[in-house]
Amino acid sequence: MDRFKPKATIMDDGAMRRAVTRIAHEILEHNEGAEGLGIVGIVSRGVPLAEILSMQIGEIEGYRPPVGQLDISFYRDDIARSIAPVLHATSIPFDIDNRDVVLVDDVLYTGRTVRSALDALMDLGRPKTVQLAVMIDRGHRELPIRADYVGKNVPSSHNEDVRVHIKDLDGDNSVTIWEHNATRNV
Questions:
Q1: Dihedrals φ, ψ of 168, to 5°?
Q2: What does the longest C-alpha to C-alpha distance in the chain come to?
Q3: 184: which residues sit within 8 A by CB, 6+ positions away?
Q4: DSSP 8-state secondary structure symbol assigned to residue 91
Q5: Its pTM surpasses 0.70
Q6: 72, 89, 143, 179: most buried, per Cβ within 10 A?
Q7: What pLDDT does 186 receive?
Q8: Which residues have CB under 8 Å from 130's CB, separation 6+?
């Protein structure tokens, strides 16, 4: 049983598409085009978002940056708490050395996932720059990490969960807030 129950939908399909389009334009402006870019999605929801972002950049610029996926399972600082972490393949089909890499994730919260991703990425090479794009920034940082590109800032409490739904995985594109399900046995 889920410990959370749905509270509100804060982004629908249209809002997510507009956010990705805006982020794509911001990335192109900041990097003066798409040449030399590589997009890397953090497993799991960052991967389809990275693909969508690369396609949008390709539509705007006429050049689609290559996309990779990064598994951070063994880089997490909470791995000792997991009995058996779920492993996914890291697949980055381009050289990250001296390349501008845009790291993509669905939700930025404490910053621990991004820290793990940076460690994993640096084990693979030395990018020219690493930029961070997220669909949602919740705040509540525990580490000094901030996103360069944000779809939406969503102030939320620690008792809430923010979930990004991707059509290919979940049946729809949306962002929802869930609140802790405080049901009691009577």
A1: -65, -25
A2: 62
A3: none
A4: B
A5: yes
A6: 72
A7: 41
A8: 101, 103, 118, 121
29-68 pLDDT, tens digit per residue, is 999 999 999 999 999 899 999 999 999 999 999 999 999 9
Instruction: Report d(CA 166, CA 177) in Å as an integer.
Output: 15
How buried is residue 109: exposed, middle or buried, by Cβ count under 10 Å (0-12/13-18/19+)? buried
Mean pLDDT of the chain: 92
Separation of alpha carbons 4 and 62, rounded Å: 42
Give the integer Cα–Cα distance in Å for 181 and 163: 15
Please report how the helices 46-61 and 13-31 are oriented relative to each other, as an axis angle in degrees rounded to 10.
60
CA–CA distance from 119 to each of 82, 112, 137, 149, 155 (Å)?
19, 11, 21, 20, 27
Quickly list DSSP for 61-103: HS-PPPEEEE--GGG-TTGGG-SSPPP---B--S--TT-EEEE
The token pair at 183 is 């049901």
Length of the chain: 186
CA distances in angstroms from 41 to 82, 102, 132, 157, 182, listed in the order given: 22, 8, 10, 26, 34
Contact between 143 and 111 under an 8 Å Cβ cutoff? The reply is: yes
Place of tokens 């389009």: 21
The CATH code for residues 14-157 is 3.40.50.2020
Within a 10 A sphere around the Cβ of 156, how many other Cβ atoms?
20
